[in-house]
Amino acid sequence: MELLQGTLDMLTLRTLLFGTLHGYGIAKAIRSTSNEMLEIEFGSLYPALKRLEAKGWIASKWETSEHNRRAKYYRLTHAGRKQLTREHSKWTEFVDAITRVMGNAPGEVER
Amino acid sequence: MIWRRLKHLLPSRRRAEERDMQEELDALVQIAGERELGNLTLAAENARETWQWTSLDAVVADVRYAFRGLRKNPGFAAVAITTLAVGIGANTAIFSVVNSLFLRPLPVQDPYRLVVLAPRERGSSEFHDLSYPDYRDYRAHAGAFSDMLGFAVGMDGIAVDQGTHQVLTSYVTGNYFSMLGVRPALGRFIEPAEAETPGAAPVLVLGYTCWQRQFNSDPGVIGKSARLNGHAVMIVGVAPEQFHGTFSLAETDAYLPVGMLAIEDSSFWTARGKRELRAIARLKPGMSLKQGRASLQVIARSLAEQYPDTNKYTSMEAYPEWRARPQPDSAGSWPAMVGIFLTLAFIVLLVACVNLASILRARGNARESEMAVRSALGAARGRLVRQLLTENVLLAIVGGAAGILLSTWISMVLSSICTPIDLPMVRLNFRPDWRVFAYAFGVALLAGLMVGLGPMRSAWRSNLSIVLHEGGRALSGSRRRNRRNVLVVTQVAASMVLLIAAGLLVRSLEGAQRMNLGFDPHHVLNLSMDLHQIGYDESRGKNFYGELLARARALPGVESAAFVFSVPFFHDRFLSTVHIEGRPLSPGAAPSDVSYNVIDPALFQTLRIPILRGRGFNEADNETAPPVAIVSQAMAERFWPGQDPVGKRFRITKPTNPLLEVVGVARNAKFVRPTPEAEPYFYVPLSQNYTARMTLQVRSSRPAEALEREVLHEIRALAPDLPTHDVRTMEESLGGTMGFFLFRVGADLAAGLGILALFLTIVGVYGVSSYAASQRTHEIGLRMALGATGQDILRMVLGEGLRLIGTGVLIGLGIALAVSRAISSLLVGVSASDPMTYTAVSALLGGLALVAGYMPARRAMRVDVMVALRHE
Known about the structure:
heterodimer, A: alpha+beta, 4 helices, 3 strands, globular, B: alpha+beta, six-stranded mixed barrel, 27 helices, about 50% helix
């Protein structure tokens, strides 16, 4: 399933809420959390990370992983947490609105 | 935030970022494997964008790339830059003329707060000057202004050591220099007490150029005495180099106290009818022009009540100084003039841009594959568009720089057009200032955008798979041809509009020159003089006139000679209100203004103006005889319609002045300006209206040079010191500023622009059709292989060209018809929809364009079928 336009930033911020992750780890986490439904292109994720970092919503640091591999790990900053709250409420409103319009699937509509 | 991005511009910082990113990506490849991560180059490229703040870095790279591109194609670069330089140069040259005449502020303190007072009699179309007492009242009571200066411009004779020269003078009020905030280059300026007190010591401040030319920049002139119109004056200072006075047409040679105007007639201080001053006021900070105007109008109304004799019908307007050049009357007309010529120049730019766009299109085809390859290698579409934009803007900037160089050359040529008038014209200073540069830059940028729009759009849309597969012939179908067609039609239509405007202006010049002027300008020599400049009083002056006339008439070959105040189409003239006897004005109606002339009785013979009724002036019309006048047909019809005007009487200036009796009616003659309809006009005899400033007109079939020498000899014999000026034949004089000069300048300028546009269009059409023919070689070969003859091909290619050019010509005709009314105010003797101009221009442009299209078509016809088919 392809991502809805503009949701990648939000998903990334949300994923980093649980702790620090490296770039590939974020992609994997989103994939597994969505039950393999959301396909994350690393080619799009990576520039998004740099963009979020430039905005000051996430910060990065070189660390060594549990398998003793060095990688750059990203974490949510205070500003990023606030941004996530904003995006979250916007998203819920959006989903509610769409749900209200779409209603039930056409087959279930009473005649 | 900004710093966070800005710091990425530091090279060391950038390198560190780059290294860090590479390490990060390498590390991830170690963890996940390359396949899992996809196109890492693209990811890195896109990530870099986030730290390229406003893409400054990319711009630098683009500019470098664009430069390399231009250097690799010198032919293309030369053609493109020349085309742009012509378009931008023409625009900038015209703008710099406009700039130096109208836009450049006076070199004084806070020039934009200066306002010119423009009083006008109700019913008159022209503004007049202010009397000194009126000026005092406005200055004292206009609350919106912090100060107000007055000045009067004169032509006077100045004698230092020996010899008298004619100079342009400004008689100024005491606050003149202090209000403008200028400082003397040398010595001091005129003190307030010197300027406006009767009997104060006469002092003189020299203009900078006059000081340089006539005094060799000698600092010793300060304190020297001189004679101005025979009166002793002392030179006290020199004005600064940049400051040319407040009379915008010419540089003032000498500044004098306004009180000197009262030396011969002390009523200057008190008489409200003696209107000699132009007033300029400085708005108080925070006051608007509207408030200033209102405060002046209040005073005008109260003066009208207090002094109904002189001020009853006077209303007051006010204009910003820069709009009231050279006269407040121009405030309404010059924006239109300027607008028309800037528009014409802009059409040249448009045509040039279209040419360049065609060239770029042709080049763009070659580059489509380059774009596709770059796009396939991961360059973002925005990046490609930006690259193209950079290339075009770079072209435009280089072309703009070349255009500025070209425009300085054009303006040098323009400024050398000498006006046929002996005024110390301001050396038209077309030196580009920031306004010119800003304008040129704007025009260049616009040109870059206009030219770049097409290729940019196709880059944006570029569909790489098609391009890559079809080897660069992606759009060779009808879409590309359509766009090419639009270019040709635009170009032809734009040139049509410009050429029609130029044609109308040229025809208008012819019309003005062919116009029946009502007098015979051939074989007449003019010599102007001002006896006032050597201090002659009335009785000496009258003797001199009589003596000189007698001597001039005695010269061999002289048919007739006469003195006249206003030479046709010259700037000196009288204008007065006219009050007809026995016909009091109905309340609320304003008296009419009529121009008139002071003449010697023989003028009607000299200029061959027939007297239709009554008689001409004669010896009996002297000081002691009742005052007389001769009116023109137009004046007779206006004031005495259906009656015999001979014997009727009228007054001028004031209803209390003595009555003038009409003794004759002269055929209409155009003295004021070359307009098609005759204006009312009348003549009064010199013997009853002594005037010190007159022009001698001599009619003789002998060559003018010999005659001129002999007349000047006679003048020198009578008054050795008397300067003469504007010595030229009447025919030359007709080309003067009030005559055909503006018509000629307009026609020359428009014709020059028209020829440029025509040339660019022909080159453009030729280029486009050559390219089109070469693009279609394959198709043509195929058609010929299928049995089409050379004639068929020629007909096909030419037919298409004919259709395009015809469309362009028709659209151009339509636009020209619709907009030509805008220039109808500049046209004389030709209508804005003159069929002859329209036909001639259509034939010229259509014909030349067809020829330009025919040559490539012929070449296409001769194509060898086998070569054409193999052409791939």
